[in-house]
Design a protein that fits this description.
With 438 residues, the chain is of the alpha/beta class. It contains twelve helices and 24 strands. It has helices at 20-31, 46-57, 97-110, 130-136, 168-177, 196-208, 248-260, 281-288, 320-327, 349-359, 390-399, 422-428, and strands at 2-6, 12-15, 37-40, 61-65, 68-72, 90-92, 115-117, 140-142, 149-152, 159-163, 185-190, 213-219, 225-231, 241-243, 265-268, 291-295, 298-302, 310-312, 333-337, 363-367, 370-374, 382-385, 407-410, 432-436. It starts with a strand and ends with a strand. Catalyzes the transfer of the enolpyruvyl moiety of phosphoenolpyruvate (PEP) to the 5-hydroxyl of shikimate-3-phosphate (S3P) to produce enolpyruvyl shikimate-3-phosphate and inorganic phosphate.
Length: 438
């Protein structure tokens, strides 16, 4: 699909969609609980549907309701009193890295002999050292390094060791899986943890479902930071109903458009005390010089005189594309550091962010694992490729608000991965978008 966007500033109010990060975790917990759970949320997307599809393949029953989902848990084994998966199931993860990295340890904890499949770059995205920890704990994984990937055997409780500079999804996946075993386990992470706020979301979901996790911090023998997550074996217990909060990651695109425009933009339905790391978009925009207004359940960004600064992407990697769009029209130089993890997203976002913003007249270059952006007064517009990456497509659409000419996005259907309503909301804020088939 091609999206042709005429230059125009956006303004107004748009509702936040449901956080897919929170939804993944709550839906998985619901499927592993001891009873039915109603999960309330206002929108779904391809990644959430992938997680639902995998849980259904393992025997959960997921009913669509007007306000979200009713999740009936995976059936229990009468013989052993443990959760049991359907042997021989195929788990299609689509292009969702979260789904694969969460469901792989869950399937292993269930003792499921299943096959994982997927699409796009998913098979190329790393699973090490999570895979090695699963194998050491009694599982047999065949097909590592690509898809399909098959699992056999059942995970044993124990101590799992991971470095902190790998995907936080490995830690979250183990945290979601280990309560199934009903025995104490420990996850030991050495070094500074990347994307730590996402682990906080997982701990929050576990607490909602009655799972006790104690977190200990200190230093290892070599002096590196060490974090230990101690699970006491408590099982998932349904709270009856849960609600998925609004998504800061996708709200960030509208808030950044507000900073780049001439009028304010408000996103409603957001928790200002959320554990989502991308809530820090407000702090970043304030550092750029935009004016921020917070109210109950909403955030508003008004334009200001934008100027570059230096920030770290360590805890907010998903914000890098759209913050790069803001930086491209901010006076002076912006440096976004600690971007190495962007290389293993749906696209190599260091490369694709740089290439497509430059196609629109920006001045962006890669220096090691950093992005260095020299601001210009106005972008030129042009033709970009989404590279099958939702955040690159949405970045380009936001960049169009500060372009002198139209922006044409090829592969614009990539937004369906996380935000199927993106172009509808873009129009609601006054944008001009024409969609056509390629």
């Amino acid at each position: 699909m091609i999206a042709r966007i005429a230059p125009a500033h956006l303004a107004g109010t748009v509702p936040a969609i449901a956080s897919k990060s929170v939804a993944h975790r709550l839906i998985i917990a619901a499927a592993l609980a001891n009873g039915v759970t109603d999960v309330t949320f206002n929108t779904s997307c391809a990644d959430i549907e992938a997680t639902i599809r995998c849980l259904e393949a393992l025997g959960a029953k997921v009913e669509r309701a007007e306000q979200g989902l009713r999740v009936h848990p995976i059936p229990k084994s009468q013989e052993h009193g443990i959760l049991r998966a359907l042997a021989g199931a195929t788990l299609d993860c689509g292009e969702s890295g979260s789904t694969l990295r969460f469901m792989l340890p869950v399937a292993c904890a269930l003792g499921a002999d299943v096959t994982f499949t997927g699409a796009g770059r998913l098979g190329e995205r790393p699973l090490s050292p999570l895979a090695e920890e699963l194998i050491a704990a009694g599982c047999d994984l065949q097909g590592l390094g690509s898809l399909p990937l098959t699992t056999k055997g059942r995970l044993r409780a124990g101590t799992f060791k991971l470095p902190g500079n790998v995907s936080s999804q490995y830690i979250s996946g183990l945290l979601l899986a280990l309560p199934i075993l009903g025995q104490p386990s420990v996850i030991e992470v050495t070094g500074t943890i990347e994307s730590k706020p996402y682990i906080a979301l997982t701990l929050q979901a576990l607490e909602t479902f009655g799972v006790s996790v104690r977190v200990e911090t200190g230093a290892a023998l070599d002096g590196q930071p060490r974090t230990r997550y101690l699970l006491d074996g408590s099982p998932y217990r349904t709270p009856g109903s849960v609600s998925v909060e609004g998504d800061w990651s996708n709200a960030a695109f509208w808030l950044c458009a507000g900073a780049m425009g001439t009028e304010c933009i408000t996103v409603s339905g957001l928790s200002l005390s959320s554990a989502q790391g991308d809530r820090n978009v407000l702090a970043a925009l304030s550092c750029f010089g935009a004016r921020i207004r917070r109210s109950t359940g909403a955030a508003t960004v008004q334009p200001g005189t934008l100027h570059g600064f230096t920030l770290s992407a360590r805890d907010v990697p998903d914000l890098v594309p759209v913050l790069s769009a803001v930086a491209s029209v901010a006076k002076g130089t912006t440096v976004i550091r600690d971007c190495s993890r962007l290389r293993i997203k749906e696209s190599d976002r260091l490369q694709t962010t740089t290439k497509e913003l430059c196609n629109l007249g920006a001045r962006v270059r890669i220096v090691d694992d950093d992005l260095v952006i020299e601001g210009v007064d106005e972008l030129s517009g042009g033709v970009v490729c989404a590279h099958n990456d939702h955040r690159i497509a949405m970045m380009a659409a936001v960049a169009a608000t500060r372009s002198s000419g139209p922006v044409e996005i090829h592969g614009a259907e990539a937004v369906n991965k996380s935000y199927p309503l993106f172009f509808e909301h873009y129009r609601a804020l006054g944008g001009s978008v024409a969609l056509s088939e390629e």
